[in-house]
TrEMBL record, chains A, B:
Coiled coil: none annotated. Transcriptional repressor of xylose-utilizing enzymes. Belongs to the ROK (NagC/XylR) family. PANTHER family: BIFUNCTIONAL UDP-N-ACETYLGLUCOSAMINE 2-EPIMERASE_N-ACETYLMANNOSAMINE KINASE, ROK (REPRESSOR, ORF, KINASE) FAMILY. This is ROK family protein. Keywords: Carbohydrate metabolism, Xylose metabolism. It comes from Oceanobacillus jordanicus.
Length: 392, 392
DNA sequence: ATACTTTGTTTAATGAATAAACTAAATAGG
DNA sequence: CCTATTTAGTTTATTCATTAAACAAAGTAT
């Protein structure tokens, strides 16, 4: 059983000090002591250790505030690096970040046939390349994080992923065996939620829901600053909330699922029915966006409708979680200009007044990087072993 | 800021020891040491303190297992008492429990006009009476917990409650001023969830959703063993999930809310339309249950439909939370025999196979007491100040 | 009767946080 | 320019947790 002892106390306080330096650095020992309530002596001891650990450096003297000049400390973001991978349906985006989540290298490849061989080969070569490009550092590449579409079990086994030929593949095991670097796989909505929580729009939100609207809709749930994954790791399938009880059958087995009305697939399906696109063989989001920019009435009306359906689902999420913040991510986010108003008017209409203005709704601030950055953040947090991110 | 120090360590370990005695008592010091990993010395120290605190007693010698006989310890459930109150729409049920949640006294009164005066007077007299009846004990009555229908803010202010004339009343403040006993008010779904989690069917579930199906539908969310209340304390309004996007307007502002189809109100409304009840002026649940028992076809068909609608909402909950356990409580629970099968067949139909048999679905095991017992458990936990229950 | 086991306490050691005293180095004000 | 004051950071001694080891108490097994 997890009991309390002195090492626990030290761990807690060391985390607090490191966190403080990360968030507020450059900062002096004295300031940390004032801000945290920890004794000056304790702070000094922790800082010494962190400097030995190469996680913190001294910057030099800062401004005096009427007495001896403080020694400023900063988080050594170059103590190690992490790889974050966005495993998309037709692309793989891989980033190398420093320990602050700053992107230092970036590579991507398109996927053509989604076969296991193609994907694995692309992953291997991307990872190998980023490892080679990673600057010399005390800890090297500290982890590989992957955000994948589909259902991933807590051991890193991909239980089910539509479109990709990776069902029942234990990606974590395979990559750890090959690269000997701690690896984490999770659903892209979960990694996206983490990314936004740690580095994006959700920095100050302890309870946030990240809504990944792509081909389907998935949600990443951050509760009390921690990722919630449920009993068997498959929570957050809110794309499959029924919003039409006798609606169309969904591939998940349910009927009238939200994502049938509000996702990228829904958008493309409905666009196909428009007069304007009747001669277009395969419609893309680019087509739709360019028409929307041109002011194509039918496309605007369609986006309005899709926005409204997004709003209906968001009302459900708010009624369930009463979150501090809602973040819309993935590919639907590019239509922000056209869907945000209908979403907001649906919220106004349908939300009980007790929610008032409490909910903060926004579009992903990390854009196409939220998934890859979240995956990277995940492994960084694991490396730093501070309680910034825990999976419930 | 909350930092680590020795008192924290002690608090953690003392909690562990007390919890162990609560759960496994009678138990010896040696056994606690083995089970928890705490050193024998530490356990002895904590036990001495707990005995001084009157929270633990020595029972006498136990069975030898090949050496010196152990001294068995047990949790002194009579060290104090707690009052738990189920504030219903047309009744108030108040229980006095010992520290183990065992009911030692019970009183209830019907409500006739739901006026603030009637309710406050009834509450006062119930509380006063239970305090008088509480046996002599080291700590006396350690808290008053109240589960109320409606929306309660974190400070105990009732923001909104349908049917009761208590809107904007700060019940907590009023009762604390009068009785000088720590008081907690929460939504009845939250207290119900706590009751089932601590003393009922959900004892072993760390992630559970308690679905209170009464006049409306509310949900109490326990995540990682802790009650989740959301950013402003109004999470869990899953009765207002839209299941028909263009459905009837609900009083909450939304459309096609789940509770319009699956609650007690829905049952009564639909029952009114049945040929059999056309001459009954005011139909009650008793009427319906007695007809169901007699095998009235129309009533059975109606209950089947209501069950199916309950199933639809439960699928939504499972897709969202992937919980260890789902517990159906409040008045709809009495129809278990007629609604459980339709619910289960809807789950079979609509749930993705990845949920398999992972979800444990059951009806409240505390029956009409789950709300009152949860309210009592809430204040007991606060009193014991062990981390058994924390509100996120 | 003797060896062994199990329970629980006493004793001494370890390691964490911290208050107080101290050193170092600045500013401020005459 | 000099002294008092302020601020930063370290050294020292104390307090208070857990714990390992030795020990005492009280049983069982043979």
């Amino acid at each position: 059983m997890k009991t309390g002892d002195l090492t626990l106390v030290k761990q807690i306080n060391k985390s607090i000090v490191l966190n403080e330096i990360e968030k507020k650095g450059p900062i002096s020992r004295a300031q940390i002591s004032k801000d945290t309530g920890l004794n000056k002596t304790t702070v000094s001891t922790m800082v010494s250790e962190l400097i030995e650990d190469k996680l913190v450096n001294e910057l030099g003297q800062g401004q005096s505030s009427g007495g001896r000049k403080p020694v400023m400390l900063y988080f050594n973001t170059h103590a190690g690096y992490a790889i974050g991978i966005d495993l998309g349906v037709n692309y793989i985006l891989a980033v190398l970040t420093d320990l602050s989540g700053e992107i230092v290298e970036e590579e991507s490849v398109p996927l053509s046939d989604q076969s296991a061989e193609e994907i694995m080969q692309a992953l291997r070569s991307l990872i190998r390349s980023l490892i080679e490009k990673s600057p010399d550092s005390p800890y090297g590449v500290v982890g590989i994080g992957i955000g994948a579409p589909g259902i991933v079990d807590p051991e890193g086994l991909i239980l089910f992923t539509p479109y990709l030929d990776l069902n029942q593949v234990n990606l974590k095991q395979i990559l750890e065996d090959e690269f000997n670097i701690p690896t984490l796989i999770d659903n892209e909505a979960n990694t996206g939620a983490l990314g936004e929580h740690l580095y994006g729009a959700g920095k100050n939100a302890m309870n946030l829901i990240y809504v990944s609207v792509g081909i389907g809709i998935g949600t990443g749930i951050i509760i009390n600053g921690q990722l919630y994954k449920g009993a068997t790791g498959i929570s957050g399938e809110m794309g499959h909330l029924t919003i039409e009880v006798n609606g169309r059958k969904c591939s998940c087995g349910n009927r009238g699922c939200w994502e049938l009305y509000a996702s990228e697939s829904a958008l493309l399906t409905e666009a196909k029915k428009l007069e304007y696109f009747k001669d277009t063989s395969s419609i893309t989001l680019d087509h739709i966006e360019s028409e929307a920019k041109k002011g194509n009435k039918d496309v605007l009306r369609l986006l309005h409708t899709i926005g409204e359906y997004n709003g209906v689902g968001l009302v459900n999420i708010i009624n369930t979680f009463n979150p501090d913040m809602l973040i819309i991510g993935n590919r639907m986010a590019r239509f922000e200009n056209w869907i945000m108003n209908p979403i907001k008017s649906v919220l106004d209409d349908r939300l009980s007044p007790f929610h008032g203005n409490a909910v903060n709704l926004t579009v992903s601030s990390l854009g196409k990087y939220s998934n890859a950055l979240g995956a990277s953040a995940f492994v960084i947090s694991k490396f730093l072993d501070i309680n910034r991110v825990k999976v419930i």
